[in-house]
Amino acid sequence: MERGMTADQLLSALWRRKALVGAIAAAIFVLGAAIVMTRPSIYEASVVVRVEPQRPGEEMVQRTVSELIEQRLVTVRQELLARPVLQKAIEEMNLYPELVSDKGIEAAVEQMRKDLTVRVEGETAFELTYAGRDPQVVAQVANRLPAIFSEETLKIRQTQAARATDLFTEEMVAMGKAVSSWEMKISKFKVDHLGELPEQMEMNMRGLERISAQLQTKSEELRSAEARRSDLARARNAADSEAGRLEATESGLSRTLTQAKTQWTSDHPEVKRMERELGDISAQRKDAEGRMYAERNERTRVATLITNIQKDIVDLQKQAEAYQARLNNTPRWAQELAVMNRDYEIARTKYQSVVSRKVEAEIAQELEAKSAKSLFNVISPAGVPSSPARPDRMTGLLIAALVALALGVLTGTVLEMRDDSLRDGTEVRERITLPVLAVVPNMQGKTEKRILMPMAGSKNSVSSPTSLN
Predict the structure, then answer these.
(1) CA of 24: how far to CAs of 5, 8, 414, in Å?
(2) So what's the pLDDT on residue 373?
């Protein structure tokens, strides 16, 4: 059964079992020391990398990669521990060959994640620590990983810049087609409504004014021609009457002359007089007929002139109506053309903006390529470690010694607490309720002083011992 113990009793019990406690402690210490001493040495190499700002480039041209390189420090640990970086390092430096051959690249990447430690230092730097068994390989990996990370980061940024350039190129082509489409629509609209466009309104007004002036002139000419025709119509009757009268007179005088010649000779004065009168009458008739023919031609000419003037007036009126129709349609076409021009200007402005952004994207892409080597600067390269970082063998041995001693003491204590043996009178009086009459010491074959412990006081009390010799 278990029982309680005081500190003195515990020390006495441990001293009685010192051999057992020492053996247990020694065995555990040897085991712990073996574990500590047989653990492989792990070397660590650290490198400090500074991220250089890109402010001058931003002042010269707007970058298409909006994320600042300094902002990548927020996720630098995740990016350094990402598979592309670690897999490239493993394949390039032939790390974990046994693990790769046995379990594949995924297991090697996972193990490398455990061996890497990334810590951000300030706002523009980070420290990378790699642990391994070979100090040379550890230093090489620590110095190579920042370069691989820089290459992957720059590859991503250059890909983003190239994607932005391609995007602007595609947008520029699309906007160029839209601008060309609007130009063709506007050109076709102007051809279809030629003469009715807003920019031709002033020309149409001047044309209408000119046609109105010509109409007025033609109207005056028409009135004059019609007046002339009226005059000629009135003169026609008189000319016809005079020519008929002279023709009748000439006919009557000719008959009289013929009768006179039958009565008189040709030299007769009466015949000569009549011949002279006939000649005069004939001349007058011819003159009257000439005037009649001239008036007839004039009437024909005036009639033709009136017809031509009337045709000109009709044509001028049609032209005036056409100009007026153009002026009437101009406001409607002006509104439609204004809408088309507005959309065209919007498309052209977008196109010019996209062209400008494309040029900036190309410049930004070139800057990304040129500034690739200056983004990451190793300010503290990793050296070959001269001593292992772990395990700490002295601390391990000390811990093993303390654990061994503690387990030895614990073992002795447990055994003592479970031991029911009675070793002195005090334990007898504490653990047995019966009266103690005497205590027989361990004689061990020698003459010992015999002690009697008679009853004294009550029946449960034990008096001081009395020698029996």
Answers:
(1) 22, 22, 13
(2) 60
